[in-house]
């Protein structure tokens, strides 16, 4: 959309500004850009646009973009740059219980999507294609479940590898230049640990897409990273925040004395 294009261009302008500052400093701060949105769909839409732009750039000008969040909630085309995916590649592809559980959740989500696609298929060829994909998906799922059962759920379940993945993910986050995540995850433990270890690493700017769809407290979360500047993008005439709390009648900002 036009809004996504504007945000992407804004990101590139900020990135260019940061990189120019680096070239003029002997000991530059490792400044990063934080991209947020209230939902996974919204942030992934922006990330997909940035991934397309990055592919069109010369290799020496491509920014380091990652997506932080549970892999099963991330768009399938974005998962390749998910921090957890990149960390697992760093450590290696040794099968462990945690990875199998993640794979099972991903397969379950894909199974639901394929079942819905079969129901909505407009022609027989599409229905057959989705049916074949669903059968393949279910076979993979059965094999993994069987493997888990055979091993009693303990496939190389050493805590050492899990620790290595966490450490690798911290390094992946620290090495990224643009980090995308949802508002609810922008102050998650993995980001706090990655950004808090080194005083020289910080978020200089944050852009929040679909800001009007988030409640006030949620939109203000990025400020906990001591961000220099924040840009809120949204349309107040569109969808308002969805609040499921039973105490929603209470004003969002309350001061108790």
From TrEMBL:
It holds the Pfam family AAA_11. InterPro entries: DNA2/NAM7-like, DNA2/NAM7_AAA_11, P-loop_NTPase. GO terms for molecular function: helicase activity. Residues 1-246 form the DNA2/NAM7 helicase helicase domain. It comes from the Eukaryota. SUPFAM superfamilies: P-loop containing nucleoside triphosphate hydrolases. This is AAA_11 domain-containing protein. It comes from Rhodnius prolixus (Triatomid bug). The lineage of its organism: Eukaryota, Metazoa, Ecdysozoa, Arthropoda, Hexapoda.
């Amino acid at each position: 959309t036009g809004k996504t294009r504007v945000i992407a261009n804004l990101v590139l302008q900020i990135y260019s500004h940061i990189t120019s500052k680096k070239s003029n400093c002997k000991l530059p701060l490792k400044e990063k850009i934080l991209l947020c949105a209230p939902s996974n769909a919204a942030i992934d839409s922006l990330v997909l646009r940035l991934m397309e732009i990055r592919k069109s750039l010369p290799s020496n000008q491509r920014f380091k973009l990652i997506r932080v969040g549970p892999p099963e909630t991330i768009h399938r085309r974005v998962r390749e740059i998910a921090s957890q995916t990149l960390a697992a590649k760093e450590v290696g592809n040794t099968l462990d219980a945690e990875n199998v559980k993640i794979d099972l959740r991903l397969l379950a989500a894909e199974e639901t999507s394929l079942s819905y696609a079969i129901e909505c298929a407009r022609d027989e060829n599409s229905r057959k294609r989705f049916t074949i994909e669903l059968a393949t998906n279910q076979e993979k799922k059965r094999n993994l479940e069987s493997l888990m059962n055979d091993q009693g759920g303990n496939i190389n379940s050493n805590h050492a590898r899990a620790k290595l993945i966490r450490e690798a993910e911290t390094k992946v986050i620290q090495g990224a230049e643009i980090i995308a995540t949802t508002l609810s995850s922008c102050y998650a433990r993995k980001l706090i640990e990655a950004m808090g270890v080194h005083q020289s690493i910080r978020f200089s700017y944050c852009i929040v897409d679909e800001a009007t769809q988030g409640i006030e407290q949620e939109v203000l979360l990025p400020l906990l990273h001591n961000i220099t500047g924040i840009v809120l993008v949204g349309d107040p005439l569109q969808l308002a925040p969805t609040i499921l709390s039973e105490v929603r009648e209470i004003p969002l900002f309350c001061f108790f004395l």
